[in-house]
Amino acid sequence: MLQIDRLSIGRGDRVLFAGLSVALQPGELLHVRGANGCGKTSLLEAIAGLRRCAQGGIRSTPDELARHWIGHRNALSPSLTPRENLQFWAGLNGADTGAADEVLAAVGLGAGVRRRAVRSLSAGQKRRSALARLLLQPRPLWLLDEPLDGLDADGIALIAGLLRDHLHGGGGVIMTSHQPLPAGLPAVRELALDRAGQP
Amino acid sequence: MSAVAALLRREAWLAARSRSDWLMPPFFLVVVVTLFGLGAEPNDPRLARFAPAILWVANLLAALLTLERLFRADHEDGTLEQMVLSPLPLYLVAACKLLSHWLLTGLPLVLLSAPLGAMLGLDTAAVVALVAGLVLGTPCISAVGGFVAALTVGLPRAGLLLPVLVLPLIVPVVIFGAGAVRSAQQGLPVDAPLYFLAAILAVCVTLVPWVCSAALRNAVD
């Protein structure tokens, strides 16, 4: 599904990665671990297509649009409601705008929350709204940067369910998390980066 | 097409929630032009002579008020990253943002400028030239300002940098725009300065969305 060959990424004068090679198979979750600043987010950004690679390459079976990217920032306009934000993302990506309510309900956001401005929501509710984008349209590869941040126990269990369903459906996930991964996820593989950005 | 509609609809939603953002430029224009009127001697004929420059500079400064935030909010909350990854080409995203800026800021300024011009003593022919010039010139201000806003979106204190970079670039627009009004005041043809404004607008429409998209992609990288 995804093949990374001898990937090198730099930030300024610093080399974050040199010679990183890893593959992801369908139905597999790659958990990228490492200390702060070791380049976990940069790796995901490079796979998403947001960051240039200094050397090496990333090859994927589906085309580049067939991946979801949920970064540190939630990509939600604070003055709009979660529903309006999701309707916008659905429209921009050619998905069904009418599905916004349904996917927000699927991540546990009730009708009252869906009609409030994002700026008035808690961090966990904002994170759930951002993760609801994963359900707007099916894409085989999910790239998730600290997706569990701000979520309570119910939220983590809910996201674990989404991950399980996606993996069982043959999708792939690459995610970073400082928290322990929820139990019961199939085919989890660890990728530990040290401080020098080496696997 | 639905992606473009979604983008324009979102801009309308954002404008409806942040009324101060689009009410501020017209308010600024009215206050500045009125202060010139109040500061001059009553019925001073020199006011009409300076009116083209007053109105064009006030329009330019009013339009600059909201340009800094054109891409900044999207950059800060991560929306820009997602736009870069969306199937809609980034130059179309930039074009929609620039169009919405002109509709929400430039167009109200154009509409307000006609009565303000009359208030400063412009005759009918001069007011028509003023409006025609602004119709062609304010989209250029949105485009050039949007380009600079895209270039500086990742920089701290870009709000201070933006006018310094935009004002020199927009000098030809002000020269031809105010020149058209002066020509009308003197009974001369206004075609030439308006054609020059139209040419500048054509260049802006053709090039700016592409250079904006390159600047935005660079800001995300």
Automatic annotation (TrEMBL), chain A:
Record-level Gene Ontology MF annotations: ATP binding; ATP hydrolysis activity; transmembrane transporter activity
Which keywords fit this entry according to its UniProt record?
Answer: ATP-binding, Cytochrome c-type biogenesis, Membrane, Nucleotide-binding, Translocase, Transport
SUPFAM superfamilies assigned: P-loop containing nucleoside triphosphate hydrolases
Keyword Nucleotide-binding applies: yes
The record's annotation in SMART domains points to:
AAA
**Top-level division of the source organism's lineage:** Bacteria
Query: What biological process terms from GO does the record include?
Result: cytochrome complex assembly
The record places domain ABC transporter at: 2-199
InterPro entries per the UniProt record, alphabetical: AAA+_ATPase (IPR003593), ABC_transporter-like_ATP-bd (IPR003439), ABC_transptr_haem_export_CcmA (IPR005895), P-loop_NTPase (IPR027417)
One Pfam family hit: ABC_tran
| Keyword hit for Transport | yes
The protein depicted here goes by the name Heme exporter protein A
Organism source for this protein? Sinimarinibacterium flocculans
The lineage is: Bacteria, Pseudomonadati, Pseudomonadota, Gammaproteobacteria, Nevskiales
Automatic annotation (TrEMBL), chain B:
The membrane spanning regions, by residue number, are 21-40, 46-67, 88-114, 126-153, 160-181, 193-216
Q: Where in the cell is it found?
A: Cell inner membrane
Superkingdom, according to UniProt?
Answer: Bacteria
Q: Does the keyword Oxidoreductase apply?
A: no
Tell me, what is one Gene Ontology molecular-function annotation carried by this entry?
A: heme transmembrane transporter activity
Q: Which InterPro entries match?
A: Cyt_c_biogenesis_CcmB, Cyt_c_CcmB_bac
**Its topology with respect to the membrane?**
Multi-pass membrane protein
Keyword Cell membrane in record: yes
GO annotation, biological process = cytochrome c biosynthetic process; cytochrome complex assembly
Q: Which Pfam families match?
A: CcmB (PF03379)
Its Gene Ontology cellular component terms are: plasma membrane
What are the UniProt keywords, alphabetically?
Cell inner membrane, Cell membrane, Cytochrome c-type biogenesis, Membrane, Transmembrane, Transmembrane helix, Transport
Q: Which family does it belong to?
A: Belongs to the CcmB/CycW/HelB family.
NCBIfam families (alphabetical):
ccmB (TIGR01190)
Described by its record, this protein's role is as follows:
Required for the export of heme to the periplasm for the biogenesis of c-type cytochromes.
Q: Output this protein's name.
A: Heme exporter protein B
Task: List the source organism.
Answer: Sinimarinibacterium flocculans
